[in-house]
Amino acid sequence: MPRKAARLIGVSLLGLAGVLVASTVAGLGFRAYRQHLAAETLAIRSPNGVQEGAYVDIGGIKQWIQIRGEDRDNPVLLFVHGGPGGSTLPISSGWRPWEKHFTVVQWDQRGAGRTYGAAGEDALAPTMTLERMTQDGIELVEYLRNHLHKDKIVLVGHSWGSFLGIHIVKQRPDLFYAYVGTGQVVGRVTFEKSFELAITHLQELAQSASNSEALAELAPIVARPRITPQNRLVADKWSKSLGLPSIESFQLAGPVPPPFMPDFSLLDWYNWRKGMAFSAKYLRGREGPMFKRDVASLGLAFPIPVVFIEGDADYNTPSGPAEQLFNQIIAPHKEFVRVRGGGHFIPFDRPDEFLAELVAYVRPLVPD
Length: 368
What we know:
eight-stranded mixed β-sheet; alpha/beta; globular
């Protein structure tokens, strides 16, 4: 290559590198500016408010919690996230109105988010069990009672968090004013019903598209919608081809888009995504606790109030099995709240409506 051409290429590459560096710096600067604005939007300024984030010693490791509320005298609401591994910290700006009525606690569970990042996979892997995480939840609630000077709290469990949450309240009901389940997981029957609905929806999509190949492959599964590896492969194939909406297709509500949540770094995003994949290895699938166990086996008698807030359009954790469980539950007070048109992520895409149900059905259960 002639020396002049080599110099031109070198100059071009340096120029391109300079453009990339400048673009990256500008992008990070813009993100920092948006995070600053978001911090102002979400700031708690009331004199008796609380706005904290810290690692707490739980179950032999450091686990991250966030506590926010406008009045420390309000009831404490612990939100037990789903996933598994799906920390709600970056997607919860829509909960700002909740903080007028409750002191809201978010918890990065063992294997999730900042807790995952602090502990690392080698330390966590042998401990990723339902039993250990149930004890984590109990230890956390004991900490919150002391730290926030409360006798009891309210637990809200979403999806995987509803499965874990019921195990927590069944072991220590004395710590809680009420249990609230949303996207309630019952056990294997929840996923069998979800698969059945998905196959039915795929058949409808195939009929609309006049896709004879899809209809032929789906027909035996429609007749007997069992969750098997082969049936899963067929369902996954046509889910992509026919455009079946994914679990992530919901629209978040809230004033702050997730990329601009304050005090949430690029490293936090890395740990958020890694924690989701890591937790799934131990807690999801046919060998995971949600598939191999059933909530009813814990007993149907609850000594505390039980409230289910369920979307009637939730195809991920359908409300049918949850309602069947609810009808068998014996509790001093219970409510089944049906959200018309609500999907799996009601607390996130319809947070104001979810709050209205909390205020109507849960807040009165907490003594002033």
